[in-house]
Amino acid sequence: MTNKQISLRINSGDLAEARRLFEATATERTRVTWTIIIGGYARSARPDDAFDLFNRMLRSGIDPDDLTLASVLCGRDVSPVQVHARVVKTGHASTVLVVNTLIDSYAKCGLFDESRALFDGSRERDSITYNTMIVACHRHGCDERAVDLFHDMRALGLRPTQYTFSGVLFAATALTHIGLARQTHALICDRLDEAETLFQEAPERDCVSYNVMITGYARVGRFVESLRLFRELQFKGFDRSQFPLASVLSVAASRADLGMGRRVHAQAVVTGAPSQITVSNALVDMYAKCGELGSARAIFSMHVDRNEVSWTALLSGYVENGLYEDGVRVFAEMRRAGVATDRVAFASALRASAGASSLPLCEQLHACAVRAGHASGAHVACAVLDAYAKCGRVLEAERAFRDSRERNAVSWNAMVTAYARNGMTEAAVQCFESMVRTVGANEVSFLCVLCACRHGGHVEEGLRWFGRMRGEYGVEARRDHYACVVDMLGRAGRVEEAMRMIREMPFEADEAMWTSVLDACRVHGKRELAEVAANWLLKMDVRDGGTYLTMLDVYARAGEWGEVRRVKGLMRAHGAMKERAYSWLE
Question: What is the DSSP letter of 274?
Answer without folding.
Answer: G
